[in-house]
Design goal:
This protein is an alpha/beta fold. It is built from 27 helices and 17 strands. The strands form three sheets. An eight-stranded mixed beta sheet has the order 12-11-10-13-14-15-16-17, sandwiched between helices. A six-stranded mixed beta sheet has the order 1-2-3-4-6-9, with helices on both faces. The chain has a three-stranded mixed beta sheet with strand order 5-7-8. Bound molecules: 3-hydroxybutanoyl-coenzyme A and 1,4-dihydronicotinamide adenine dinucleotide. Keywords: Fatty acid metabolism, Isomerase, Lipid degradation, Lipid metabolism, Lyase, Multifunctional enzyme, Oxidoreductase, Peroxisome.
Length: 648
């Protein structure tokens, strides 16, 4: 079969050829697709009956970009930049008809076309920086020529796509259609043939921008923490100042350099891990139970966040609290998350009211009778939790899934002796639960496959990244975090400065170092957990943070923890009080480079990850990487601790 027949069909509508590209799932530009498009240009140019060509795609989207799976391999001709040029140079004008997303190479192909029409629901963008690269087929060169430098900078450095409407305003799209893309595009093509053609994108002028614009753009791009956004900016600036061919050469050189970089390899690893996680192969063929209504027990920090996440995904929620006062507080907590979205412009007041109307609050567990899933998020005390699950057994449907959000308790102990085993599971959300993407799914040995599949389906509905975790203290994430904290404290004991440890981890790419992060979330949570274990007879020597908590230093909320936070400031200041409290426990000051500190701590995370794999707590190294990236702020461009340590 020729590549044409494999990937393209061509039909004629009067003098208009309609080329339909079909390369599921997202019409990525594999070598075969590139060849097929190249040949189609030649064939249609040679066809006297054809006056214009509409390029449209089958399936869920227009071309979503280069085929990322080819990135680890040597490039195969025809190369994408040449194909875009070839389409632009065609004797017959090509019109891109866009639905879904035109991303990266897909948008570059569209810009090589003489016109672009799009459904209003479509999006266009240059997400290459998310893969650690810059656009490599004229995105940084054609975008400023078509839509101006500001549009190019925003699209290529943020990686976030624009709606068709926004793109049209910038001149990147010619016409936006509400429906019937094909008919609209063909009609557009006919009308366009009656007028003089606009110049091809490569021949358009681009106005220079002043230094202030570039300085501002550089600051914004630098905030992303990795090199690709800054390099994309360099390419765009050069493209606004240099002739087309020179700008193309510079972009290509940058693209090829970055494609081979460690950052790009790491980001590709994360890209595929994130897409594999929601549908693990070992759940294939298992059907999830229906999910129409969710109950949440406890409207505190976690319960409110979980309820908000469910509402934002369209699920009705029943919230149960201890008494009327706690219920009112819980409902207010939920509404606060919606109010936050309104103030950020993400939600209208009407939508906020709708979301809240979908929350039924009650102090009577009988209100849970028709829930398909109930998630418990009450105090972290085994007695309280067991009482909750005993009640759930009485009021819930027999097929309702019952879940606990416990962080540290053994899920088996929560329902031990109850008849809930098969339908019981741990669903460990992260705070704030309506924002954080990670969901650790913790089945017990008794949990049925259907219930496990339902948990993964819930994650998909909520837009979360699910990772299956086995039962051990802290599951995957908190177990690694505990080791990380302990190793960071060990460095302090050796005489390394607190501020150097935090600076090292920020330098590595975390938003905060381990001590700043503890000050933010509060040192008392882990302290209380250790105290509980001590009370139960475990011998746990005092950690340095225990010494601080005993002295009343619990973190930002008490004005000081590892650092001082005078006058409710959130800026950590090195604390003399902390130094004095810890002085008897730390060695003489010892210099250690930030690189060595980061290598040591990330190495410790990977070591713990290795043990977690050996214990069967995580199914794969990639899962551990996802936990760290989506639950603990590990920089995604480093790929996660396991990828970073070369453990696959
Ligand atoms: N190459 C190869 N496979 C891709 C792909 C790509 N560019 N984009 C998506 N896929 C695959 C996914 O791995 C997944 O495969 P699976 O079903 O086997 O797991 C499948 O397509 C579906 O992907 P999603 O689950 O993400 O599907 P959605 O419908 O949720 O989203 C999408 C569709 C918005 C297109 C989303 O897939 C996406 O954002 N893709 C990435 C687009 C991208 O980064 N493009 C730029 C590539 S780099 C480039 O073009 C360089 C150029 O400038 C030279
Ligand atoms: P919280 O103290 O903020 O909220 C607990 C809520 O449960 C309170 O509103 C309380 O009134 C309610 N409650 C207590 N007993 C109840 C009962 N019998 N019936 C109904 N409601 C009851 O606690 P938080 O932080 O939300 O934690 C809840 C659970 O989530 C704990 O198991 C915790 O370990 C876990 N968790 C906490 C995280 C965090 O960052 N705070 C992260 C992940 C899990």
């Amino acid at each position: 079969m020729s590549h044409d027949a494999e990937f393209l069909t061509v039909h004629r509508d009067g003098g208009i050829a309609v080329v339909t590209l079909d390369n599921p799932p997202v019409n990525a530009l594999s070598a075969g697709v590139r060849k097929a498009l190249w040949d189609a240009v030649d064939r249609l140019d040679a066809d006297r009956d054809i006056r214009a060509v509409v390029l449209i795609c089958a399936g869920r989207t227009f071309i979503a970009g280069a085929d990322v799976r080819e990135f680890g391999q040597p490039p195969v001709p025809p190369h994408l930049p040449d194909l875009v040029d070839h389409i632009e140079a065609a004797a017959k004008p090509w019109i891109a008809a866009i639905h879904g997303s035109a991303l990266g190479g897909g948008f570059e192909i569209a810009m090589g076309c003489r016109f672009r029409v799009a459904l209003s629901s479509a999006r266009v963008g240059l997400p290459e920086v998310n893969l650690g690269i810059v656009p490599g087929a004229s995105g940084t060169v054609r975008t400023p020529r078509l839509g101006g430098a500001a549009a190019a900078v925003e699209l290529a450095t943020s990686g976030r796509p624009w709606s068709a409407g926004k793109a049209q305003k910038a001149g990147l799209i010619d016409t936006v259609l509400e429906d019937d893309l094909l008919a609209g595009a063909v009609a557009f093509a006919r009308a366009a043939l009656d007028r003089p053609l606009p110049p091809p994108t490569s021949q358009r002028e681009v106005g220079p921008m002043d230094d202030g614009f570039w300085d501002e753009a550089r600051k914004t791009a630098a905030r992303q923490g990795h090199q690709a956004p800054l390099r994309a900016l360099d390419c765009i600036r050069f493209a606004t100042e240099a002739p087309f061919a020179e700008a193309m050469a510079y972009e290509r050189e940058t693209f090829l350099e970055l494609r081979a970089s460690d950052e790009a390899a790491a980001l590709r690893h994360v890209f595929f891990a994130e897409r594999a996680a929601p549908r693990p192969a070992w759940l294939e063929g298992v059907t999830a139970l229906p999910m129409r209504k969710v109950g949440v027990i406890g409207g505190g920090t976690m319960g409110a966040g979980i309820a908000a996440a469910c509402r934002m995904a369209g699920l009705p929620v029943v919230l149960i609290e201890r008494d009327g006062e706690a219920l009112a507080r819980g409902v207010a907590n939920i509404d606060q998350t919606f109010a936050g979205a309104v103030s950020r412009g993400k939600l209208t007041d009407a939508a906020r009211a709708d979301l809240l109307a979908g929350v039924t609050g009650s102090t009577d567990y009988a209100a849970l009778a028709d829930c398909d899933l109930v998630i418990e998020a009450v105090f972290e005390e085994i007695g309280v939790k067991r009482e909750v699950f005993a009640k759930l057994g009485q009021v819930c449907r027999e097929d309702a899934v019952l879940a606990t959000n416990t962080s540290y308790l053994d899920p088996r102990a929560i329902v031990a002796g109850m008849p809930h085993g098969r339908r019981f599971i741990g669903l460990h959300f992260f705070s704030p639960a309506h924002v954080m993407k990670l969901l650790e799914i913790v089945p017990t040995p008794e949990t049925s496959d259907e219930v496990l599949a339902t948990a993964f389906a819930l994650a998909r509905t909520l837009g979360k990244i699910p990772v299956r975790a086995g039962i051990c203290e802290g599951f995957i994430g908190n177990r690694i975090f505990k080791r990380y904290r302990a190793e960071a404290e060990a460095l302090l004991r050796q005489g390394v400065a607190l501020a150097d440890v935090d600076a090292a981890m920020r330098g590595f790419g975390f938003r905060m170092g381990p001590f700043e992060a503890q000050d933010l979330s509060g040192l008392d949570i882990a302290f209380l957990q250790r105290e509980g274990a001590r009370a139960a007879g475990q011998v746990i020597p005092d950690t340095l943070s225990d010494i601080l908590v005993r002295a009343g230093r619990k973190g930002q909320k008490t004005g000081g923890g590892w650092y001082d936070y005078p006058a409710e400031s959130r800026r950590p200041q090195v604390s003399r009080a902390t130094a004095e409290l810890l002085a008897p426990h730390v060695a003489a000051p010892q210099a250690m480079t930030v690189e060595a500190i980061a290598a040591h701590l990330v190495g410790a995370m990977a070591d713990e990850g290795r043990d977690i794999l050996a214990d069967g707590i995580a199914a794969s190294a990639a899962d551990i990487d996802l936990v760290e990236i989506h639950g603990y702020g590990f920089p995604r461009w480093k790929g996660g601790p396991m990828f970073f340590a070369g453990i696959r």
